[in-house]
Amino acid sequence: xxxxxxLENFQPTASVLIRGIGxxxxxxxxxxxxxxLVTSGDxxxxxxxxxxxxxxxxxxxxxLASRASDAVRQQLETNGATVVLVDGGWDVAEAQAxxxxxxxxxxxxxxxxxxxxxxxxxxxxxxxxxxxxGDDRPPPAAVLTVVGAGGGLLNGVLEGxxxxxxxxxxxxxxxxxGGNSLQLSLEAGRVAPVERVNTIAxxxxxxxxxxxxxxxxxxxxxxxFAVSDAMAADGCRKFADDHRxxxxxxxxxxxxxxxxxxxxxxxxxxxxxxxxxxxVCGGSDISLAQLEEYGRRYSDPPIIVKxxxxxxxxxxxxxxxxxxxxxxxxxxxxxxGKESA
Length: 341
Known about the structure:
InterPro entries: Ser/Thr_Dehydratase, TrpB-like_PALP, TrpB-like_PALP_sf. It holds the Pfam family PALP. Helix 3 (about 70-80) links the parallel strand 3 (about 60-65) and strand 4. The chain has helices at about 15-30, 45-55, 70-80, 90-100, 115-135, 150-165, 180-190, 210-220, 230-245, 250-260, 260-265, 290-300; strands at about 1-5, 35-40, 60-65, 80-85, 105-110, 140-145, 170-175, 220-225, 275-280, 305, 310-315, 325. It is built from twelve helices and twelve strands. It is globular, with a radius of gyration of 19 Å. Strands 1-9-6-7-8-10-11-12 form an eight-stranded mixed beta sheet, sandwiched between helices.
């Protein structure tokens, strides 16, 4: 298949999130007259708000989980944000950030993923992609993206697909086993939170998807994939080897699917000349030292992927020992597959 890379890692904040969050921040300042932007989430969310606030000439405060790396905190402070470290995960950081914003009449809380302005901003990724591919080229066989925290990125991609009139093009939506809120919700037929998020992919740190995500998945063909942390780490390493580009583990999760044969197993009718769009979402929380650590901890990981009602396991690319086991059913539709920026 022809793999086209949408390189969102070259955004000013090294992450796709500047599209949606930047759009939300701009509207908050220009239409809601915000004089102070407040947010919570991972470093990419914070960076998007900090960068936007600096461009809009207003202060920014970012509530960050205490487990965030020193490098992330330094990046935020370099961009002019005030960083507040919180003991706990995304939920605790959000509660404290909202409370802080409520006490400041000039502040607006910028949600990391659950807001229509965020989704509309992310949708520009697809409409821009269609322009780049040209009207004379048929729609791609599939678009592969990570779900994003709470499904915010997926919501935007699906909205962009509608605007581009790619209504039947399936979206392969990837998350990790330790943050698989989309899969849990599809299996349950309702928003079902992850009991405890446990993944190196910090950009998947929200416990639950939005209701809008579940609604979109009932109206558009979405194929959910969940991969292991080891596969996500390995995806980062292989992408760095292939393209000399560093991306964080959240992005690596999506890339890992391309580096295995599992997509072909799930979509056997994918033509050999089909176009597969891969959203390289990027991420700022990555370094050479982290890649080296990934190599020590996750060298040559087994392939363990859950998609819909099947679990695929392969202990090496040289092994034919692939098994599939039935799991809880999920309501999904199917079908996906040159390399370009």
